[in-house]
Design a protein that fits this description.
Helix content: 25-40%
CATH architecture of the largest domain: 3-Layer(aba) Sandwich
Strand content: 25-35%
Radius of gyration: 20 Å
Largest sheet: 5 strands, parallel
Distance between the termini: 43 Å
CATH topology of the largest domain: Rossmann fold
Number of helices: 8
Order of helices and strands: EHEHEEEHEHEHHEEEEEHEEEEEH
Strand order of the largest sheet: 2-1-3-6-7
CATH class of the largest domain: Alpha Beta
Shape: globular
CATH superfamily of the largest domain: Response regulator
Number of domains: 2
Structural class: alpha/beta
Amino acid sequence: MRVVIIEDEKLSATRLKNMLFEISPDIEVLAMIDTITDSVAWFREHSHPDVALMDIRLADGLSFDIMTQTKLACPVIFTTAYDEYAIRAFKVNSIDYLLKPIEKDDLQQALEKVGSLQSQADPNTVVQQLLEFFKQKDITYRTRFLLPFRDGYKTVLVEDIDFVYSSFRITHLVLKDGSQETVAQTMDDLEEQLNPANFFRANRQHLISIQSIGSIHNYFNGKLKITLKRDPERELLISKEKAPAFKQWLDR
């Protein structure tokens, strides 16, 4: 079986590759790609694989965009952190899903499902159905956090968050009053839970609110440098690949 891995986290991509080889030494990983732009270019220039493993969120957008820019001739297995209602939408035709963190047994079952299919539905059509599903579904985003406080608990409102950062795998909420709170959720969790109209995943370590931005500067090699109002000493860079999505987010 020939496989293409589309994943922007290097460790996750390597782990997937190693699990594939553990499942079968006959599996051939044709490419490991980390952006939508490079994925589209690869599919346009190469024969398509037997299956593509795609993370949904990539550095330069959602992997659904790959299907809007090129016609895939292979089934797709998405990797996702979406909640239960969204996961049901993936159980259609030849598209399957794997819920992160991915386990080898789940990956093996998904590959067996692909191998057992006699005829493959057009993944581009299925993705369009999936996008329509998301448009019709009302999504409820997190509005507050319940945090331990002394001998009890306290509530932190999302509207009071200036930005979020991760350090040594600990997630910190920086509030508009300058105080900080640690939460159990990962950055990936919060990227899904916070309203994308108000928060943007600038890089792996930072989620910023629209109100947190002080200034925006062009940087080397097409990158952008962001200065935060309440933490101007913090260096925050947005990659060349993610810069267009960031500009679009600001220009709504």
